Amino acid sequence: MNDRLRLTGPCLPRAAGLLAGSLMLAACTVGPDFHAPRAPVESAYTYHPVTLAAPGASAAAQQLRADAAMPARWWRAFGNPRLDATVELALADSPTLGQAVAALAQAREQVLAARGAALPQLDLQASGTRASPQAGAPVLEQYSAGPLVSFAPDVFGGTRRLVEQREALAEVQSAQLEAVRLSLSAQVVAQAITAASARQQLQALRAILGSDRDNLRLVELARAAGRASGADLAAAQAQLAADQTLEPPLRQQLATAQDALALLVGRGAGAWQAPSFELVDLRLPRDLAMVVPSQLLRQRPDIRAAEAQLHAASAAIGVAEAELFPRIALDASWSAQSASLGTLLSGGQAWGLSAALGAPLWHGGTLRAQRRAAQQAYEGQLQQYRQTVLQAFAQVADVLQALQHDAQAVQAQQQALASAAESLRMARDAYEAGAGSLLQVLSAQRGYAQAGIGEAQARARQLADSAQWFSAMGAVPR
Hints:
By secondary structure, this protein is α+β, with helices and mostly antiparallel strands. The protein has helices at residues 12-25, 81-93, 95-117, 158-224, 230-244, 247-264, 293-299, 301-322, 366-432, 438-472, and strands at residues 4-7, 63-65, 121-131, 140-151, 287-289, 327-338, 348-358. The longest helix has 67 residues, at 158-224.
């Protein structure tokens, strides 16, 4: 500020009084104090109660446990050591996670910078001149050096609101880091399940293609013997060709999942080989911990990040409002002065105190418009927070109902697989007794393999939705 009043001698008590008054006024903080939004009134995620049916005799029924603690390493519930090692590798060396860690560290440094601005500032000032008043006159030299202490009392709390805002933004980054850890672990599990499902479907498809080829050979022999028509041969060839088209997409699905796993663990696909996950080696989690809606607000990192963003928007109102009030600056300086550089330390001394007061009078409505803009930003962030909460509840409801339907689908597919196995047994018994044909046996084998593909797909969906459940519940790795 340019309109500074220099205080010397008798004015020193006035400066001290001004400083004391400023510090007393520093208890005033403009802008609203932040209060977290009220917890939702919902006590359930779905309008109708959801119960998980038993997936069949060969697998244990899943149970929702409100009294169970949320596991820190939830992926271990799948009982696969190779999956555990892959998730741990991703959490240790993922570039995405490293980026989130750096963003949090940056936010914390910005908090320290904002806090430091509220403290007195100490600088070193030095100056020197060398001039001749007129031609032929001796050269005059003058030097001075000394410390300068500056302090801007936070009379109306603008700096404190800025610190509050930066702290809230650091909380946002902290919650986003937890969200990255949760998302990263969930993606690893999901890709492992996808790879295992594709691998098992390929095994079943190979059995189907084997039956198709055997069937084609039988039709070709029957055609040569005059017992089959050209239409029968064309139908057998078309069936084999149609089933062969199913193999490339499954191989691509497996390759894509393996490449995704390499990316998630921070490795190149050409330098790191993903483990060979098998669907039979992945155990279905039996107990699923569940938190009530009011607790989910503190459990899920995306909701906590939205709340911290709302807090930052609230503090920004105080920062904008503080611009409408006067600002005070206090300076204290001391310097050693000399007419020559060599005698600087033994020369004269000078000190000074100064205070400056500045207050906005008319800025064309800019400052008040900025305050209103900050208030509207808060209202917008409040709606964003509400939307985040609603989306979280909707996700939990979707996964909850998906688990119920998955259990029913697995049970139906297991029954279909058992029926196909019984049909195959009967066809083989009839063929061995001379009452059936080999073509009937091959058809039964094909039906059994198809039922195996359906059962693999249903189990993979149930495993994937179980992993999604832990993500929806906010089971952040610790």
